[in-house]
Amino acid sequence: MKFILSLLLLCVTTLCCTAASDMLDQALLSASQNSPLLIAQCALAAATTDTPVPQTLDGDDQATDRTRLAETSAAAAGEALRVAEQTILLNAVAAYMDLLRDGALLELQRRNFQVVAESLRVTLERFDAGEAVRTDVTQGETHLTSVRAMVARAEAQYARSRVTYGRVIGVAAGKLAPAAPADRLIPRSLVDSIEVGRARHPDVVGAAFSVDVALLQVKIHEASTNRGGAEERSIRQAKETLAQRRIDLDTARDRAQANVVATWGEWDTAKSRVLAAQALVVANEIGLNGQREKARSGERSTLDVFDAQQELVEARIALVTGQHDRVVTSYALLAAVGELNLRKLRIDCRSAVR
Which of 52, 27, 336 is CA-nearest to residue 194? Predict the structure, then answer.
């Protein structure tokens, strides 16, 4: 079921999914196709993989090691591509969801302006009929001015997000369709996520390949039959490099684990915030209706109604923001475990190289 980034109770029709809407997966494909970094990395990985390696002869251990060295270096280049994929795709998700959020917030503020303007119109009619006082009119006019400023700020933020979208995705934004979290692709538990991240994150796998490369370089140097002072120094340097690469691997695993734990917490918190915001919207709608009823009977002032209306708007802002965070953090967690890549999202890397 689609996780709809929209105002469930406000029914923002401009963000409803239509046949002409841009989908998140389309935006990710465009980002991959229009990213110079990803195109270059993908081409580099393909070129490295296609590079011929020496053919080994039976019993020629040094030739075998050199072949393995070339293959392992190619594998390391592939992990660099995966790092580039994750960065580009996560930035694309953020740009898409930011624009979707800011479009919803702009629509919310515009609708709020219409509500406040209508309330002021009714207050003026009541004032003309002697049923309201000048203070009610002044409060309404002040509140309308404040809401007008909020609309202007929302318009400016939406414009900025459209520019960012075009820069990150590579094409101008159309109408954006609601997006779903990546929960189905995430390991079921924090423990499983840590295990996957420590084993599969491209930084970790790349570091592991670097250890293999360093080890092969040591073996190649040690296999030299004519060792002189220079060759002995090369062996020592190769062993020092190997020791450092092993430290780098441990560091990469620990860093991946820390990132998974932190991102899991953000993802879990985002889910809780959505539920809380949904309950708050319902409560504030009930509260606003109650304030309006009491205002009609003279038990509450116009200011009380405006305050209740603003509290409802703020609750809806929290809901929209929470739904945005819910989606973005799910993709961030997928990246943290090392699984945010073109293949996982069914985007063919070769289609990005034209």
Answer: 336
Residue 176's beta-bridge partner residues?
22
> Of 336, 32, 92, nearest to 203 (Cα)?
336
Q: Rounded to whole angstroms, how far apart are CA atoms 96 and 116?
A: 30
Spatial distance between the Cα atoms of 331 and 41, rounded to a whole number of angstroms: 22
- Our measurement of the distance from residue 182's CA atom to the centroid of its chain's CA atoms, rounded to an integer in Å, reads 10
User: Distances in Å between the alpha carbon of 274 and those of 24, 321, 322?
Assistant: 20, 9, 5
Of 338, 354, 353, residue with least CA distance to 85: 338
Q: How far is CA 258 from CA 32, 255, 263, 338, in A?
A: 28, 5, 9, 13
> CA 221 to CA 236: how far, in whole Å?
9
Ranges of each domain in the chain: 20-352
pLDDT band of 229, cuts 50, 70, 90: confident
Q: How far is residue 140's CA from residue 136's CA, in Å, rounded to a whole number?
A: 6
Query: Domain 20-352 falls in which CATH fold?
Result: Outer membrane efflux proteins (OEP) (1.20.1600)
**Each residue's pLDDT tens digit, 120-166:** 898 898 888 887 889 888 988 998 999 999 999 999 999 999 999 99
Q: How many CB atoms lie within 10 A of CB 168?
A: 21
- In sequence order, what are the residues at sequence separation of 6 or more whose Cβ sits closer than 8 angstroms to the Cβ of residue 316? 7, 9, 10, 108, 281
Q: Of residues 296 and 197, which shows the higher confidence score?
A: 197
Please determine, for residue 217, whether its predicted confidence score (pLDDT) is greater than 80.
yes
Contact 182, 331 (CB under 8 A): yes
